[in-house]
Write a structure and sequence with these properties.
With about 280 residues, the protein is an alpha/beta fold. The protein folds into two domains: about 60 residues; about 200 residues, Vaccinia Virus protein VP39 (Rossmann fold, 3-Layer(aba) Sandwich). The protein is built from eleven helices and nine strands. The strands form two sheets. A seven-stranded mixed β-sheet has the order 5-4-3-6-7-9-8, with helices on both faces. It has a two-stranded antiparallel sheet with strand order 1-2. Helix 6 crosses helix 7.
Amino acid sequence: MTLKKVLTAGRDRLRVAGIDEAQTESEHMLMQLLGLNRADIYLSSDKEVQPEQEKQFFAWIQAREKRIPLAYLLGDVFFHSLKLKVGPGCLIPRPETEKLVEASAAELKGKQSPWLLDLGCGSGAIALALLSEIKDARAVLVDVSQEALEIARVNARELNFEKRAEFILSDLFSSLPLERKFDLIVSNPPYLTREDMNGLQPELAYEPRLALDGGVDGLDFYRRIIKDAGGYLKPGGCLGFELGAGQAEAVSAEMKRNGYEDLRIYKDHQDIERVVLGRVKG
């Protein structure tokens, strides 16, 4: 089959399966498979696709029809201009999480050789994006999943950040020595409510439940982190979270009750209150 026919057939199957971005996803699969950019796909539309490549393409189409996330099929995703490896052992980084990176980077700029802690690091997206922004920063990446931590380690190595990053297997702070102090602690914790978990979108069902389930009201991990984070922050240090839709008020109130000051809330590109930052007393 020609490239054009392969692309059209894949797109049509994804549309029937209810995939919103059927055209774009089919293009991405071919770009990955053939090593082409989008323009080349259309400039070479009459070129014959090799049988093995065609077979792989339609295997991916079949997997997407089952709603396996595209990022898991292709094995990587772009986040904050970084190409990151991903797999079923970690949450797929989302564009809205870049707002936490932007706000956190602004906090660290001007600090000399700052240390940051990424709790529940998953693929390492947040910490590694911050290392790319703050050239003298160092990071500790923590996750309760060994599989996720290995993916983060691979990403750090691929980006040449391995010497600036440490990796600790831990349930939040449980394996972190109290003498470790940080200028910034960031987390995109599990924040889906129990009701949300019972009605997951098809793709989310393939992502790690540990990275999604925030308890009955979605706030379990915020409470745990807020309670203990102050002991690991330097004077004037900052705690930052990504938030689920509608959680800003509750999380901010919990931070205030635990002595955090200078609370700031940032909206994402969809005008959702997505990030909160607060400081401990200096």
